[in-house]
Amino acid sequence: MFVPAGKTGKDLAIPCCLVGLLLAGGASAQGVSVAPSRIVLDGSARAATVFLSNRSNEAETYRISLAFYRMEEDGTMVRVDSLATGAENFAAGVLRYSPRRVVIPGGGSQTVRLLVRRPADRDVDDQEFRAHLSICSVPTVPRLREIEEVIPDVPEDGFVARPVASVETLVPVIIRFGHPEARLGISAATILDQGAGERRAVTFSLDRSGQRSLYGDLTVTHVDPLGRETRLYYGRGIAVYTPNPRRVFTIAPEDPGVDLLAGRVIVDYQETPDGGGDLQARIEIRPPHPDER
Fold first, then answer.
1. DSSP character string of 78-109
2. Res 279: pLDDT
3. What 8-state DSSP symbol labels residue 275?
């Protein structure tokens, strides 16, 4: 998006949008802190409040909207422009929010209210819906005089492009009607030889089925033949969103001293209470016999 800065067709301020998808921990977007960083509305909980706090000394403007993302098999989140395709239950007609735009003074705060609206035209029992609440900073476009002070020599037949940062914070919102269930498993676990010059890696699939998403902590640990443990990976707030049946991981040790062909690797996934589930899966990966390598 191009925003004219004052001189007809010549001087342009270009907002550069930086997006951060927040699945756990604290959330912030250009001077504002956002809490909570993930929301689950199920059972009798049909409303929530998001708190925005401006940590800067200047007033900041933020645009609030809903965004929709599809998860790829490797966990990458891809923004969805059209809700007419795909098998996801996006919460476009299920979630209301207010306000849509706020100006927060320096050191001030603002609340955003979320309200679930149960559809009257279809059965949604035992179903899950998903959206992301987007809090996007609205940059102040510099005036022409300010640009000329920074770059005084502007050619008559040219233009000046000046980037203006716009930061977006995304808070996942999960809505569940009834009692949707999920099943969890770990499969396709093996030690992967990635070829010459590359370290061996652990690869496995985190499998999901049922009507709801998974959300929990993932730990991958190597245990050498002497029983010494080395943590290869620890991830908080690891999700597998519906309707995806799996999320595939490939993890290579950072420590070159870890020999994946000696000992064993333990993969453990545990749902957390704030994810709305209590499922757990664990698997041990042992290297193939030397005759099979």
1. EE-S-TTSSS--B-TTTEEEE-SEEEE-TT-E
2. 94
3. G
Of the pLDDT bands very low, low, confident and very high (cuts 50, 70, 90), residue 148 is low
Longest dimension (CA), the chain: 75
* CATH architecture entry for 182-292: Sandwich (2.60)
pLDDT in tens, 90-142: 999 899 999 999 999 999 999 999 999 998 888 889 999 999 999 999 987 66
Q: Which two tokens stand for residue 29?
A: 């977007």
Extents of the domains making up the chain: 3-177, 182-292
What does pTM read for this prediction?
A: 0.80
Backbone angles phi, psi at 131, to 5 degrees: -155, 170
Average pLDDT over residues 265-276: 90
Helix (H, G, I), strand (E, B) or coil at 291: helix
Pick the CATH number of 3-177 from 3.30.479.10, 2.60.40.10, 2.40.30.30, 3.40.190.10: 2.60.40.10
Give the C-alpha separation, 258 to 261, whole Å.
9
Contact 277/271 with Cβ under 8 angstroms?
yes
- Name the burial class of residue 252, with classes exposed (0-12), middle (13-18) and buried (19+) by CB atoms within 10 angstroms of its CB: middle
